[in-house]
Amino acid sequence: MPKRWLEAYRGSMEDEERLALNTDIAMVEAMIQETLDRFDSGETGRVWALLRGAMRDYDAALAAGDADAMVAAIGMLGEVIRRGDTEAGARAELLHLIERRRKLVESERKRLVQQQEMIHREVAAGMMAQLVQVVKDSVDDDDAIRAIAAKFAAITGA
Predict the structure, then answer these.
(1) What whole-number distance in Å separates Cα of residue 31 and Cα of residue 128?
(2) Are 97 and 35 in contact (CB under 8 A)?
(3) 65: left (phi over 0), alpha (psi -120 to 50) or beta
(4) Separation CA 80–CA 78 (nearest Å)
(5) Which residues contact 126 (CB under 8 A, 6 or more apart)?
(6) How far apart are CA 154 and CA 146, in angstroms?
(7) Cα separation of 145 and 136, whole Å?
(8) Residue 117 to residue 87: CA distance in whole angstroms
(9) What's the pLDDT score for residue 104?
């Protein structure tokens, strides 16, 4: 492992919440909001209005036989189309970000469910100690207690 990664690696290994995806989800949500803000500016309606205007200018220049005006109108159409293409790219980016957020949220949900289903080592050891005590309190035969204790040890690896 390169030395430049070592500090980040150690920090990650010490981070008990390194599998949590909350910060990733928040980052994707911020990116979604930023992308949505571009649409809130009203660019969609403005692009269509500009296209209609440029087409009207072209039609008028064509009817008048004005080649310079036709070239200018075609140039404006190209500019507006490129702007609309940028907006279409933003929409594709938005859909990608929403899907990315969905996957992150699903992964985080699964992680939290698994975390709740796990029994921590200390809890398991405490439960085992209680089971051993129940056996000791309930069984009078020392040989049976030793046999049960050996089976518990085999189960727990102790």
Answers:
(1) 49
(2) yes
(3) left
(4) 6
(5) none
(6) 12
(7) 7
(8) 45
(9) 86
**Rounded CA separation 93/153 (Å):** 56
Helices 67-117/22-40 angle, 10° precision: 160
pLDDT tens-digit profile of 32-59? 888 777 765 555 677 778 888 999 999 9
> Position 1: which residue type?
M
With tokens 């008990």, the residue in question is: 16
Place of tokens 């975390």: 115
pLDDT at 39: 65
Q: 94-119 burial by CB neighbour count: b if 16+ within 10 A, else e?
A: beebeebbeebbeebeeeeeeeeeee
Give 76-112 pLDDT, tens digit per residue: 988 888 877 677 777 788 888 888 888 888 888 888 8
